[in-house]
Amino acid sequence: MNTDTRLRGVFSPVITPFSADLIPDAGRLVRHCRWLLSKEVGLAVFGTNSEANSMSVTEKMVLLDALVEAGVPGHRMMPGTGACALTDSVELTRHAVRHGAGGVLMLPPFYYKAVSDDGLFANYAEVIERVADQRLRIYLYHIPQVSNVPITLALIERLLKAYPQAIAGIKDSSGDWENTKAMLERFQPQGFDVFAGSETFLLANMRGGGAGCITATGNVNPGPIAQLYRTWQQPDADAQQQALDRLRGIFQRFPMIPALKAAIADFCGDAGYATVRPPLVALSRHQSSELLLALKGQSFAMPGWERN
Amino acid sequence: MNTDTRLRGVFSPVITPFSADLIPDAGRLVRHCRWLLSKEVGLAVFGTNSEANSMSVTEKMVLLDALVEAGVPGHRMMPGTGACALTDSVELTRHAVRHGAGGVLMLPPFYYKAVSDDGLFANYAEVIERVADQRLRIYLYHIPQVSNVPITLALIERLLKAYPQAIAGIKDSSGDWENTKAMLERFQPQGFDVFAGSETFLLANMRGGGAGCITATGNVNPGPIAQLYRTWQQPDADAQQQALDRLRGIFQRFPMIPALKAAIADFCGDAGYATVRPPLVALSRHQSSELLLALKGQSFAMPGWERN
């Protein structure tokens, strides 16, 4: 296959803005996506940090339509499309592929626990067969601490063998570098692109031959993360990595999604960005102040936000 | 409220038949439901053992329509309607209430882990406010080993206080009798109906003042389980309980859902009942034989199946 068209670099699981009555807000989403693209960060819309599973398939399809209508290029998007229900995964994946998405990030079905690799293989196989589109590129989504359904090395091997074109790579959000390393060593040489699950492992992942990272804090610190991706072979790469880690460390003191939204709301002077859907809860006023105070001391990319 | 209309007794999370190409099979579902009703077992369609989360909301609404069209009475149904997405929960719950369902069994949103009671309260509150129907009766669904999102006693207390009419009870599938007992003691006196999560605790639950049980094996052993519910105050109740436990023990040696489906397929001579959707996997031929052999030795209710 033509590897030039493969997704690489830094992607962000884009936060999903909601109106006060909890309706997905396409206008604010488009604005945030444009800003991320201007900072060279691609759009992993409908990720964990997008509250994707707190939205219906229809709500996600409508948002995707809005992004495409707003001129967001498909090849900069990697929408999350994996759901518990096979039919939901198929419907959303098909929609994403038709919109020209460069790839889709696909959770395994995550309701049943301790399911077999046979069952997970059958799930991905059914999606691929039913979508039946040569353009489909699936990035598997390994986030065992949330999904509780791991993507094992044995499953990857089996899927790659059966569907070498459709199975394009993985996002490893396990936080277990040994696991990422094993994927890099075993599968990256076959053109299976390994994305680190956060910028914490961006430099290590690039040095190991990986494709980039997909990271929550890409929502708030896109410029510097993209810069490390571009310049990871420069002498200051380790210093850059340390600076990224410091900034991320601040967000990690808080519930991540509400904290990202509080920061974005503050930096762009639009409180509407702070709304979350249940079961998440927005930061308290006290938490918000603490977060914003901590961020003030950092050389932080958010001031680049265009207030429009 | 009029407690006469409350759901009580034995319910089964009805298995969902699928065609060979994995489409929900309304015809086989209706047939199985009629048989369960003839055995005095109510229909907790769309439960964990129904592979409910492996179906889209639309697929479940279509099945519900088919059941109602087939004359299945709403007051014998307790459809599962809780989903990760608030909007999905609202849509399916509204549909169930409009069809006259006696209650709905509602999982908490289960993608995010370690969410707060504030967030879970907000989720249930939003569903109740949006469905906005006086007929809504919610049975909370506590199954922490699968959902990984427990329903705490503190959350129940708060929900009951805010929505004493809509919050009708709970299914406790934790398998932790101390937890069920605490619910019986604290909340059953307020008219909050506690259902045991299987027949294993049916007798204990009835002795503690509970409302019955909702159990997977109701799909295959409905008569005897319903009989214990009817006669739990009789002298042979403990012996009945032991017989139920023996039968259940056989199924517990296998993956429960495929085992239920294999047994039903065999007893009604219709292999079509055995199909499961990914990520589940049907029993192997060897497992099936082993299960059916073990069942042969039991006084088992399945022969009551009408072969039509």
Structure description:
Two copies of one chain form a homodimer. In chain A, helix 8 links the parallel strand 6 (193-196) and strand 7 (212-214). Chain A has helices at residues 26-38, 57-69, 86-98, 117-131, 144-147, 153-162, 177-186, 202-207, 222-231, 237-251, 256-267, 285-296, and strands at 9-12, 42-43, 104-106, 138-142, 167-172, 193-196, 212-214. With 308 residues, chain A is an alpha/beta fold. The model of chain A has no long low-confidence stretch (mean pLDDT 95). Chain A has a single domain, classed as Aldolase class I (TIM Barrel). A seven-stranded parallel beta sheet of chain A has the order 2-1-7-6-5-4-3. Chain A has twelve helices and seven strands. Chain A binds chain B through residues 22, 48, 53-57, 59, 84-88, 91, 108-113, 115-116, 118-120, 122-123, 126, 145-149, 277-281, and chain B through 22, 48, 53-57, 59, 84-88, 91, 108-113, 115-116, 118-120, 122-123, 126, 145-149, 277-281.
What is the architecture of chain A at the second tier of CATH? Alpha-Beta Barrel
Mean pLDDT of chain A: 95
The CATH topology of chain A is given as TIM Barrel
Strand content of chain A: 5-15%
Number of spatially distinct domains of chain A: 1
Instruction: Strand order, main sheet of chain A: write it out.
Output: 2-1-7-6-5-4-3
Shape of chain A: globular
| Low-pLDDT regions of chain A | none
What's the total helix number of chain A?
12
Radius of gyration of chain A: 18 Å
Secondary structure class of chain A reads alpha/beta
Q: What oligomeric arrangement do these chains adopt?
A: homodimer
Based on DSSP secondary structure assignment, what is the total number of beta strands of chain A?
Answer: 7
Helical residue percent band of chain A: 40-55%
Distance between the termini of chain A: 41 Å
CATH hierarchy, class of chain A: Alpha Beta
CATH superfamily of chain A: Aldolase class I
The arrangement of helices and strands of chain A along the chain is EHEHHEHEHHEHEHEHHHH
